[in-house]
Prior knowledge:
This protein is α+β, with helices and mostly antiparallel strands. It contains eleven helices and seven strands.
Amino acid sequence: MKLTFTVEDEAFRAEIAQWLRTNLTGEFAALKFRGGPGDEHMFTAERQRWEKRLAAGGWTGIGWPLKHGGRGCSIEQQVIFHEEYARAGAPGRVGHIGEGLVGPTLIAFADPEQQAKYLPAILAGTDLWCQGYSEPGAGSDLANVKTRARRENADNTWRINGQKVWTSLAHESDWCFVLARTDSESVGHKGLGFFLVSMHQPGVTVRPIEQLTGTSEFNEVFFDDAVAADLIGEPGDGWKIAMALLGFERGVSTLGQQMQFQNELDEIVRIAKSNGAARDPLLRQRIAEAHIGLRLMRYNAMRMLSHTSTESGPEALVYKLHWSSWHRNLGALAMDVLGPEAEILESGPYNLTRLQSLFLFTRSDTIYGGTSQIQRNIIAERGLGMPKEAKGNLR
């Protein structure tokens, strides 16, 4: 997809750039370049206040339709927003799951009453969301979820029982969207529902999981007869809605991710120039390859964004495999550029620098969100039409 910017687009660029210069000051100045991969645990309260500042300035939901409270920005303007956001060093978003995933999904599948109930608080930056997909036995094989939803016929209430795991920011979230079985006899993709569940109720327990970095950005969540506030769509629609949400995850929200990657690469280049690592021809070659890989990632995202439906095109199949391998390699490059300093802690256990955290965190990139092995299977089967992997009989 060839991207060109009009005079109006460049005026939009100047507007967001000026707003960021004005607002990334005072209490928010310390947030610059913070909150990226491996750094999500830092400045959480301040970054939540930043979400509200963005909302007050009209910079949340910029790609949402006007009738749902968004700005109705074009793809080009959304690209500009993320470019300028990264250029200003604005912090990692704590509201990205709600704004980038939940919001577009509700706009596509929820009824008007549900949209009116949830969308305004997402736009205002007051409600934070987490994702209830993975389980101990259902990670890359998401269709193996065991969490159950039981309907009480007396008042048509759905109660959720089960466990979710690797739930990013669950300890800070107000809501969780949960994939659960509405039919206890179903297997695979059938019999699933897509539920919205308040995290502030009896029956919801959040337990942090300590990561390799010594921090706990993600958690395991237990649902014990927790009440679902809403079912989106009908019982049995869960898989369709869940897959559409993942399409949004690999859509516009990828731009923000790539801009964070650019900031990390810029920091690596800065250090390479300052400590002399840039004079090493092998390191220069790896830096060049990282730059090329990131540009290719962006252009492929542009192709993905050219689709207007909730169904992503075949180019989306390669995205997870590409970015996770690229980012893992970037973490290794960071350590090699740092040289001996890479193995020295500033103080005490786990007092890591940004790039040390990046290296440790990126070890997981090729696992979470679909392992690389699973991603290759998906590319082979869905993208190339090769024979499907043999599986046991499912009813």
